[in-house]
Specification:
Blueprint (H helix, E strand, L loop, with lengths): L1 H26 L6 H16 L2 E6 L1 H6 L4 E3 L7 H8 L4 E6 L8 H7 L3 E3 L4 H18 L2 E4 L17 H9 L3 E6 L2 H4 L8 E7 L13 H24 L1
Parallel strand pairs: 1-7, 2-5, 2-6, 3-4, 3-5
Antiparallel strand pairs: 6-7
Helix pairs in contact: 1-2, 1-5, 2-4, 6-7, 7-9
């Protein structure tokens, strides 16, 4: 019962926040800091609504390595909260072009400056990724990507797609992994205190001098580092 009430309040708060965010973005459309400002406004009250405690370690790594490609796990609908409270300055994300069809949220997402990709059309997807590379190189903008490509929903860290790593190599910027404990299984929103979400930013993985033939190796290296760190975070949260 408590879980249902919380999710109703959560989605109502999401609708209200994105509605206000949409109005805000109309006055400065596509600004690279829109997402961070509205994300903070949404995220911290959302943590309270869901009864969650939150701690992020190593956030200074994000500030000291801009621009970069931030990679994070994709677990469930709570990812919106984590993205909101953790996304660094001048950072936008990648999303499916179909998001723009969602009233209010999709329009806000687009006007926030995020990049929409048509994954079913290779030519358009490549053009979008070229735009991302240009934004990183010439506009000092970082990109937040979830390289699993789909929600894991308790199945552990899924294999990574190579797009994020190709983009980082093309732009010659570091890859910064951001890890969170397995909150899909380690939290219970049906309890008054749902649990804790613990995050850790890892040291950047450099791409200087590499080419796209290194993308698969980098994706495996990042996956192994993140998997190991997530296991440590899970052990700490559940101990």
């Amino acid at each position: 019962m408590l879980r249902s009430i919380r999710y109703i309040l959560y989605f109502l708060w999401l609708i209200l926040t994105t509605g206000l965010g949409l109005v805000f973005c109309l006055f400065r459309p596509f600004h690279p800091d829109n997402l961070r400002l509205i994300g903070r406004f949404f995220g911290y009250p959302a943590l309270k609504i869901m009864g969650l405690k939150y701690e992020l370690r190593g956030s200074e790594i994000l500030d000291n390595n801009r621009p970069c490609v931030v990679i994070a796990p994709h677990q469930n609908n709570l990812d919106l909260i984590l993205g909101g409270v953790a996304i660094p300055k001048r950072t936008v994300s990648l999303g499916k072009i179909s998001l723009i069809r969602i009233p209010i949220f999709g329009w806000f997402y687009w006007l926030s400056g995020n990049i929409l990709i048509n994954r079913t059309n290779k030519r358009k997807a490549k053009a979008s990724m070229n735009k991302v590379t240009d934004m990183i190189r010439n506009k000092n903008i970082s990109i937040w990507i979830m390289p699993e490509g789909t929600r894991s929903r308790g199945r552990g860290l899924l294999p990574f797609k190579s797009g994020a790593f190709r983009t980082a190599i093309d732009a010659q910027v570091p890859i910064v992994p951001m890890c969170f404990n397995s909150y899909h299984v380690n939290t219970d929103t049906n309890k008054l205190k749902s649990g804790k979400i613990l995050g850790q930013v890892l040291e950047p993985i450099p791409t200087t001098g590499l080419d796209t033939s290194d993308a698969l190796r980098l994706s495996q290296e990042a996956w192994e580092k993140m998997k190991a760190q997530i296991e440590l975070l899970d052990a700490e949260v559940t101990s």
